[in-house]
């Protein structure tokens, strides 16, 4: 079982909810077809029912959101209310779409829609990017089509291939993260465990994603640390009673990755499950982002610790976030280390807020 090695860094939001909520211009449903609401502000907090304008359209927030530009993809928090304002949409698009022309070097947030002047086609940003050419950097852009009098319909793939956490939300959860812990690495790793954050209602899916990210955030100080900080512990994680021993060296099985995978028997078991020889190559957990995330999901989906159930099952079956703490590091439970346990809970509460769902019950252990 992975064990807690470090004190997580609590990231101060720095502004109160009341100060961050954008000033919205109330408009009626009939006015929404022509009048543009207040412009979207990426740092503002929007609650369910808030209306903003973005790229020539009015958008309505379905639940609490921040740091996620309006789009039909991402977490699905935004509902497209159709075109607003003039038919030219601010000087770019023409015809049935009214989005601005793409400009080289301009920063575009996830979900932004532009017209590419060179071919007259429209593209939607699938990742935040500094204005890369839509026809070259297909990693950042996907084709966008719309029909009708400026209304617009599209089926671009959601950011993250359907993950309930958008890349923008992930970045807001971990603003100081190590570049090693990539969003794409996590999304790639999820293919190994397709039931993760896809089981149950939309609320349960988001709660599970928030619970996983809160725990790994705690383990790594906000996705900052890759290797266990206390090097003095390194020689302690070789269980010589195991028949396969410690072929990479007695000090090679210290905590690594988002779940801080530790001990030779965990590297052995995780490697067998993932089809990677981690027993002989434990450094893969600290050098390959996808494999590193896979080890975190492996424990989340299969490890029970002292909880008697996996963290995944705990969230899906309504046992609550507190049970995931017991499955990952039970020594924090029952008064063992209340401060550490509470830090996990605090992160979970912040993350479900970002994802716009309730925390549920049984948060502590």
Key phrases:
single chain; 365 residues; alpha+beta; Lysozyme; 3-stranded antiparallel β-sheet; 11 helices; 6 strands; 8% strand; globular; disordered N terminus
Task: Please summarize what this structure is.
This protein is an alpha+beta fold. It contains 11 helices and 6 strands. The chain has a domain at 167-355: Lysozyme, CATH 1.10.530.10.
Explain how this protein is built.
- This protein is α+β, with helices and mostly antiparallel strands.
- It has a domain at 167-355: Lysozyme (Orthogonal Bundle), CATH 1.10.530.
- The chain has helices at residues 17-20, 29-32, 167-173, 183-189, 202-219, 264-274, 284-287, 289-302, 311-316, 321-329, 338-355; strands at 51-54, 57-61, 78-83, 113-116, 121-125, 141-144.
- The strands form two sheets. A three-stranded antiparallel β-sheet has the order 1-2-3, with no helix packed on it. It has a three-stranded antiparallel β-sheet with strand order 4-5-6, with no helix packed on it.
- Strand 4 (113-116) and strand 5 (121-125) form a beta hairpin.
- Helix 4 (183-189) packs across helix 8 (289-302) and helix 5 crosses helix 11.
- The protein starts with 16 loop residues before the first helix and ends in a 10-residue tail after the last helix.
